[in-house]
Amino acid sequence: AQKVTQAQTEISVVEKEDVTLDCVYETRDTTYYLFWYKQPPSGELVFLIRRNSFDEQNEISGRYSWNFQKSTSSFNFTITASQVVDSAVYFCALSEVGNTPLVFGKGTRLSVIA
Amino acid sequence: AAGVIQSPRHLIKEKRETATLKCYPIPRHDTVYWYQQGPGQDPQFLISFYEKMQSDKGSIPDRFSAQQFSDYHSELNMSSLELGDSALYFCASTSSGQRHYEQYFGPGTRLTVT
């Protein structure tokens, strides 16, 4: 069975601090996809990144970076120089190959204080 | 670019009433997923359709039913509504011809049962 664990329920940081959101996953499949979504107070789910299980390269997009490590089944997300607009709930999710539903973690609520 | 459309965006119903949520996928997407997100919870998969046939079933109550029509739009029918059905309902669509099976989420329908 698939499972995604986001151990950090809530994180609070001061603006301009760096923050890392942890995600640990479980799956029996050798091929799978990992995702991060942002959910601001308005409620929509904003897609941030997709990573497939064969691509362990880290990725950087502006202030966002992702560290995928199959050896530890982790897909962590770092925001550099956090801003108030980064305040949201962040979900990590997993899916198998093919048209399969996403399994979400419980989410991490990030509050960035000015 | 066209996105997933959900209607209505907000819906208020009383206990024991019925509700119908609609989802219009991105053009040429053949697969639709429904997710339910309770307050403070992560999105939970309800049901999915591929080419108008049910493809997967999650934690959908027996009081709920859904279908996908010939134009690929989908409707989630909810009867005998309970207070616990108050949630954000997301629809997501994808194309089986897509290499990465990325699910594109709609803005959600916020259902309040009083």
Q: Compute the CA-based radius of gyration of chain B.
A: 13 Å
Q: What is the 3D form of chain B?
A: globular
Structural class, judged by helices and strands of chain A?
Answer: mainly beta
Radius of gyration of chain A: 14 Å
Distance from N terminus to C terminus of chain A (CA atoms, Å) equals 41 Å
Number of helices of chain A: 0
Strand content of chain B: over 45%
> Which pair of chains forms the biggest interface, and how many residues does each contribute?
A-B, 21 and 27 residues
Mean pLDDT figure of chain A: 94
Characterise the protein shown here:
Chain A is mostly beta strands and 114 residues long. Chain A contains no helices and 12 strands. Chain A has strands spanning 3-5, 10-14, 19-21, 24-26, 32-39, 46-52, 59-61, 64-69, 74-79, 88-96, 103-104, 108-113. In chain A, a hairpin with a 4-residue loop joins strand 8 (64-69) and strand 9. The termini of chain A are far apart. In chain A, 32% of the residues are buried. Chain B has 114 residues and is mainly β. Chain B has strands spanning 5-7, 10-13, 19-24, 31-37, 44-50, 53-57, 64-68, 74-78, 87-94, 104-105, 109-113. In chain B, the strands form 2 sheets. In chain B, strands 2, 4, 5, 6, 9, 10 and 11 form a 7-stranded mixed sheet that branches. Chain B has a 4-stranded antiparallel sheet with strand order 1-3-8-7, with no helix packed on it. The interface between A and B is medium-sized, with 21 and 27 residues.
